[in-house]
TrEMBL record:
BP GO annotations: bacterial-type flagellum assembly; regulation of translation
Record keyword Chloroplast present: no
Name this protein carries in UniProt: Flagellar assembly factor FliW
Localization per Swiss-Prot or TrEMBL: Cytoplasm
Amino acid sequence: MNIQTKYHGEVDITEDTILSFEKGIPGFPDEKKFTLLPLPDQTVVSVLQSVETTDLAFVIADPYSFYEKYDFALDDTTVELLQIDSAEDVSAFVILSVHDPFEASTANLQAPIIVNVKNNLAKQVIINDEKYKTKHPLFGQPAKG
């Protein structure tokens, strides 16, 4: 299926690349279908693009590339909702606020995107831990572990 995207123009995606957010994303409760799109020459940063709304896209990253000690536990409700059987089923991403220069960018460590890679069910979870912020610097300040 072809979709219009915010950063990539028109792209062709397949059903098996669509992530399902049963309850949407906080602030966007009606947006339930997203896909991950790579950025050129990037393995850490990508785009979480709404399948239905062209202008709705988030720049996301693998948090462990920036914060080796990033650690949190998922509650039982989330594990059940996403049908997670083992830790190997899970990928975590954080939404970035990208600034110029890139070194001034921040990551939302308080609300990671959790994806069950086996069934493409996803959810943005809120971590109630004061060591993680919604605007944590990407560089220069390691997340406490």
